[in-house]
Structures are given as structure tokens and as C-alpha cells.
Amino acid sequence: MENSGKKYQIDTEENKMFLGELQKNLLNxxxxxxxxxxxxxxxxxxxxxxxxxxxxxxxxxxxxxxxxMGIMLGDKESPALVHGAVHxxxxxxxxxxxxxxxxxITPDNKFLPDKxxxxxxxxxxxxxxxxxxxxxxxxxxxxxxxxxxxxxPLAEKKEPSGETAVTPAAEKPATVxxxxxxxxxxxxxxxxxxELLGFESxxxxxxxxxxxxxxxxxxKIGNMGKAIYVFEVQSKGSIDxxxxxxxxxxxxxxxxxVVAVADEAQLAKIIKESRGVIxxxxxRTWDSEDVLAVYxxxxxxxxxxxKLALVPDSF
Length: 315
Hints:
A hairpin with a 5-residue loop joins strand 1 and strand 2 (about 50). The protein is α/β, with parallel strands linked by helices. It has helices at about 1-5, 15-30, 55-70, 80-90, 115-135, 140-150, 150-155, 180-195, 240-250, 265-275, 290-305; strands at about 40-45, 50, 55, 105, 200-210, 210-220, 225-235, 255-260, 285.
């Protein structure tokens, strides 16, 4: 009786064996989830896949997360399961026409309609977990959706002509030509955009030895680590300094992408002069005018949602 109680006492040998057995049982239970295309079946009480039900994106993402933990715990079957499910997210469940992910697939392989914020949040969880677990295709998921499929295409759409809502920073949206201190203006807007998107967003951050960058967006992934996006603003001065800072930032393992922010002419110079220093696929560029437009659009959206009073003041 005394020995049996020890399995509930943290760090005893009995406890470690007990937890190890539970871990093994849980991982074994779900190993039938993977469909031929990579999306996840719902499972019955005995782990049998329910093939007559929809195969949903959020379930697939959860299984990627679970078996990424399996990889880290040394389970030999987990790598193949993670790879298969990531393939499902990149192929079977992805909306290749409009970007993002469908909510799921029916048993006869038809897409479920609409888009769900809930499901997309789980894509970020799956991508982060798989990346940390060493899945070779995980990097195709991480920033692909969260920033580059959704945010930057919006930035590429120019602000339409006409009256614009007043923002907290000015009576009307500043343009690059009107800005008296372009570098500081854009840097402040980058930090504000990050905050509005839910990132921990800061300016003037030492990202690695010898490199202080203009702005970073940081997302903490549970207790597994963090993902960082680095921004450098160019208004005047040495382009070499910007390129060097972004190159140094890539030495930080948590940095998922580096972004140069400038006007159209400066961006052309940055792209040209960075060749051979930063791989073209690793360097993102963002027009300063688009940063201002995205900021104004996000502020208006935030103000409009706040008017709904969905969250009580006491919260």
C-alpha cells in the first residue's frame, strides 16, 4: 500500500513510471487519426477513426501539436504522424485560391464553407509546435499564413481616396511626403500595428549581439518558446547599416522573418544591395505608405469593434 501511493508523489521512481505509462497510452490512443490526405479523423472512445464525420482543421492542428510533443518525448512513430498532418494542412485543408485554411472537409471530400478565426489560431499552434519538434515542412506554415498570406496583401492595397477617420496620432493620416520625422513615425506605427494584432510589440530592441533593430513583434508559444518578427525602417542614411542589422537578426533562432520598411525607391535599392547577403526568399519588404494605411485601417476596425461593447468594463 505504501509503495502504491508513491506513484502519486512527484519525482519518485514510481511516479515517473506511472506518468510514463500514461504518456505512452495517450500517444498510442490517437495514432489512428491520420487520413490518406493528411487531415485528421475524429476518434471513438477506443481510438477507432470515425470516417463518416468531417475532418476538421482545428482537430488536425491539435494532433500536430500532440505528436510534436511525442517527438520531443522520443516516440518513434510521432515524426511520421506530424509530417503527414502538416502535409494535410499544406495541401488538403489549405485554400489555395484565397489564402488561409478551410474549416474542414466532408467525408466525400468537399470543403466546409467560410473561414474560422478559431481554426486559423490552431494553425499557428501546429506550425510552432512542429517547427520546434524539427518537422522539415513546418516553416512553410509559420509565417506563411499569419503574416504573409493575410497581412501584407492588405498592405499592398492602396488607401482609397476620400475622407479618412481621425486617428489618435494625427488629424488625418500622414503620408510619407508630409511626415516630418518619417523614421520615428513609421517605427511608432509598426509597434502600434503589432499591438493591435495581439503581439508583444516593442521599439529599439537588441535582437542579438551588435544589432539593435527598430521594431519587433513577439508571440509566445505556450511554454515552448517564442516567434519574433524583426522590422528595420529606412528613410535616409546608410542602407548598408539596415542590411547588416537584418542579417545579424537572423542569427537569433527565434526570428522567423526580417522586414525592410521604406518608400518604393529605397526598397528597390535595399533589394539590390542585399543580394548575396540576405537570401531573397528571407527578406520581406513593406512600403512605408502601406504601413500607414494598414495602421489607419486597424485603428478604425478596433474602434468599430469596441463600439459593440462585447467585453464588460469590469473585465
